[in-house]
UniProtKB/TrEMBL annotation:
Pfam families: Trypsin (PF00089)
PANTHER family noted in UniProt: SRCR DOMAIN-CONTAINING PROTEIN, TRYPSIN-RELATED
UniProt keyword annotations, A-Z: Hydrolase, Protease, Secreted, Serine protease
Domain Peptidase S1 as annotated: residue spans: 1-198
GO biological process entries: proteolysis
Predominant place of localization: secreted
Molecular function via GO: serine-type endopeptidase activity
Species for this entry: Biomphalaria glabrata
Compartment(s) where it occurs, according to its Swiss-Prot or TrEMBL record: Secreted
Presence of the UniProt keyword NADP in the record: no
Protein name: Serine protease hepsin-like
InterPro entries: Peptidase_S1_PA, Peptidase_S1_PA_chymotrypsin, Serine_Proteases_S1, Trypsin_dom
PROSITE patterns: TRYPSIN_DOM
GO cellular component, one term: extracellular space
Length: 200
């Protein structure tokens, strides 16, 4: 969530929408357990329009039809105004676990991660890593996110403020050794994001 009317996500999550009416789409915000339809904080929102950057730079902005309310489960995160630091601690949230064949988890999970250097990312994924990405460590046990996590957020917390650092673009196969999570680097797109959100 970026402001009252906008949600940031992966380009790949909604590129099919270019063939359909975006107003047919909807999202549920504040959800922590998929099967608990009675969650009091759960909010249904419909889409008004969207803005895509391009396929290579995996980021999109969804504009909502109505204001998205905030509560203890739903709040806006700030767009970063300064670049990330190697070793910075982040929080990643997601729904998938295990292998590519695994089903969606019933409950939202999150784990602590650490932003790695660009040199480490480039060395590990020489053909996949691009200049407007960042990569992070992934847990060695417990919750094990997989490739389905497109659009999932990577947050950092600084001076009592949540900052949206990354948007998941590629999570390697769950069985790969020493794998890293790949994210679109939100800082690199801050001017484009602010221009869209502010209507310029």
């Amino acid at each position: 969530m970026a402001g009252e009317y906008h949600i940031l996500t992966s380009y790949m999550c909604i590129w099919y929408s270019t063939y359909y009416n975006i107003q047919r789409y909807e999202a549920y915000c504040g959800v922590h357990k998929i099967t608990n339809l009675g969650e009091p904080q759960r909010v249904r929102v419909t889409f008004r329009e969207f803005s895509l950057y391009n396929y290579e730079n995996d980021i999109a902005i969804i504009k909502l039809s109505t204001v998205l309310p905030t509560n203890s489960y739903i709040t806006a995160a700030c767009i970063p105004n300064e670049d990330w630091l190697e070793g910075e601690i982040g929080i990643f949230a997601g729904w998938f676990n295990g292998t590519y064949e695994s089903a969606t988890l019933d409950q939202l999970h999150q784990f602590q991660t650490q932003i790695r250097s660009k040199a480490t990312c480039e060395e590990k994924y020489v053909y996949q890593f691009r200049s407007k990405m960042l990569c992070t460590s992934l847990p060695e046990s417990g919750f094990n996110p997989c490739g389905y996590e497109l659009g999932a957020p990577l947050y950092t917390y600084k001076e009592n403020t949540w900052i949206l650092r990354g948007i998941a673009t590629w999570i390697p196969d769950c069985l790969s050794a020493d794998r890293l999570g790949m994210f679109t680097d939100v800082f690199q797109f801050r001017n484009w994001i602010n221009r869209i959100i502010n209507g310029r």
